[in-house]
Amino acid sequence: MAKPPLSMKPTGWFQVAWSEEIGIGDVHTMKYFDQEMVAWRADSGQLTVMNAYCEHLGAHLGYGGTVVGEVLQCPFHGWQWSQQGRNVCIPYQDRPNRGRRIRTYPVVERNESVYIWHDIEGRAPFFEAPDIFEDFGDGRRKADYYPQQRLFRQGLELHPQYVLENGVDFAHFKYVHNTPIVPIFTRHDFDEPVSYVDFTITFEGDDQQSIEDVRSGVEAINGGLGVAVTRSWGMVDNRTISAITPVDERTSDVRFMVYIGRVPGRDDERAQAKARMFGEEVIRQFAQDVHIWAHQRYSDPPALANAEYEGFTAIRNWAKKFYPDGKGGTAAELNSSGKAQQ
After folding, report:
1. At 267, phi and psi to the nearest 5?
2. Contact status, residue 168 vs residue 188, Cβ threshold 8 Å
3. Are strands 80-81 and 87-89 parallel, antiparallel or unpaired?
4. Is the bond leading into 147 cis (omega within 30 degrees of zero)?
5. Cα 80 to Cα 64: distance, rounded to the nearest angstrom
6. Least confident of 209-213, 242-246, 289-293, 306-310
7. For 236-295, what is each residue's pLDDT tens digit?
8. 124, 118 in Cβ contact below 8 A?
């Protein structure tokens, strides 16, 4: 497939694991942003994500490295590294090497997920990763929903921005997901690093109905390019999390999670089975998009229909703030001559 013209090293929060994958004392290997990494959980429960290679002689800490209390010990010579990436012990010498440090990443655990902050300029986080329950402010909690259902696809040739742009692409709902009518967007707020997109949509009925008759929709919160959460209203109560994380200069890992709401007084096996089926349907629809993204060539500048200008221009201009290397493409809107506006 075509290599994305956008930088594969954007700034923001990105999912690198699920929390349950890394228990006390575990060392978890992974590769993201062209870096071999390890995540390890100390005896206290504190999670650390750092680059994988020991600064001594380059052993990979994910292959034989062990958690010793609150530090990670190299399998090669027993050098111990702290949660800040500093050498704190050389077992055959009376003092550590204070001049070398392994790069560590700011990390938060939220939405049953592990997120790291990535920034090629080394800046501290300047926005929060969205929370699937807290950020919608409606009082709903994890206990009000059935267990999280998941999709995980690795090494796909796509970029996180493809997925975010899907959130303003009203026309695809009818042709990819077979909605009876094209949805109407009621909010585009791209003023801050955390943006908001709301739209009215239905998956039921036929194309004879009017959008004014629809009493259901979706609210989306985008935490930069890496993590987006949604809440549905007026339909089966569901919330979703999409998390796209670059692996190298061509590929990304895709994670998608769904929560289906419990109905008070109707929590029997039949209700659970229906919820499971509905969650599987939500995942199936997301997988339809993934199939397209994984074979897509990023069009820049795109040939837009008139009604698409506002949404695509807004989201592409917003996305530029996450590319400190300047490789963030152009604005989406075209002028009457068909050329990208400067």
Report:
1. -110, 40
2. yes
3. antiparallel
4. no
5. 13
6. 209-213
7. 788 999 999 999 999 999 999 999 999 888 878 898 999 999 899 999 999 999 999 999
8. no
CA 183/CA 173 separation, integer angstroms? 8
| Helix residue ranges, H only, 52-104 | none
| Residue at token pair 């993590």 | 227
CATH code, residues 142-321: 3.90.380.10
Cβ(244)–Cβ(319) under 8 Å? no
Q: Strands, E, within the chain: which ranges?
A: 12-18, 27-32, 35-41, 47-51, 66-68, 71-73, 80-81, 87-89, 104-105, 107-110, 113-118, 149-156, 184-189, 194-200, 217-223, 227-233, 238-246, 252-260
CA distance 56 to 48: 19
CA 52 to chain centre: 22
Q: Which helix (H) or strand (E) holds 286?
A: helix 269-293
What's the CATH class of domain 12-118? mainly beta
* Cα 223 to Cα 110, 227, 232, 259, 318, distances in angstroms: 13, 5, 18, 19, 12
Angle 284-270-230 from CA coordinates, rounded to 5°: 40
Q: Where in the chain is CATH 2.102.10.10?
A: 12-118
Q: And the tokens for 271?
A: 């209700």
Nearest to 116 by CA among 4, 3, 250, 10: 10
Residue 236 C-beta-side C-alpha neighbours within 13 Å: 20
Helix, coil or strand: residue 80: strand
What is the C-alpha to C-alpha distance for residues 248 and 7, in angstroms, rounded to an integer?
10
Global pTM? 0.92
Q: Where in the chain is the domain with CATH 3.90.380.10?
A: 142-321
